[in-house]
């Protein structure tokens, strides 16, 4: 009987404040959709980092005859065979190095022609103008500075380049977008909490006579507050369900179908459905607990019977 009464009071409360209830649902849905989206963005960035950093190489470019005439780093002339052997031996001794691959001038010229064969500059280049290099695969891509410190400025070395620097700019942009989404999410959560508190206050005020009678007949404080708390929880849960729907639909149409980014952007290792599905219970739990707690604390202050 008591459960039936509480449920009937929830229905009455939601219908009485239909406009504000709808506003709560929409604000909760948007804020939690952004919350889930920011979590998925973090997963995506981490996945891309793991995928691309694993392919990062550090390149030690060696001086050639042309560099000896124009580059201050090669003022002592082109690299010699002894210098190349010393560099290779030192690389082999370093614990941070996983693999070293030598690229000759002919190989460098061939790769350049494959990638930039249509450029006007490619027609004027010859193999002897290309640089020999050591392509170094690191155990940990974060240890680039170890290689740079050891070989930058060394005789026969023109420069040390790390591909990770290029990727860091991309990941910095993605992280910036993620933090912007979190800022908007935080703003939307504040708006949602304010709407929940105001909705509970209006509902409590409109039913102050009923709650007063319940107090007079000996009803406990929690029993009086329960319908208001559950109203907020139900509205939040509806909003959380809508947010979960947003994420599922977005993943389906943006990644798999519709825009089909997974087919158009083959270089990006997109997160799978498992990452999306594991976030949905967290969103639903947040949508249920956040409004309930907000209503509980609002009632402690505003429910006067």
Automatic annotation (TrEMBL):
GO biological process, one term: cell division
Function summary: Part of the ABC transporter FtsEX involved in cellular division.
Pfam families attached to this UniProt entry: FtsX (PF02687), FtsX_ECD (PF18075)
All residue ranges annotated as the FtsX extracellular domain in the record: 56-160
ABC3 transporter permease C-terminal domain sequence ranges: 183-301
Subcellular location: Cell membrane
Keyword field contains Cell membrane: yes
Family of this protein: Belongs to the ABC-4 integral membrane protein family. FtsX subfamily.
Segments passing through the bilayer: 21-41, 179-200, 221-254, 280-299
Coiled-coil spans in chain: none
Subunit structure: Forms a membrane-associated complex with FtsE.
Cellular component, GO, one term: plasma membrane
Name this protein carries in UniProt: Cell division protein FtsX
Record keywords, A-Z: Cell cycle, Cell division, Cell membrane, Membrane, Transmembrane, Transmembrane helix
Domain of life: Bacteria
Topology in membrane: Multi-pass membrane protein
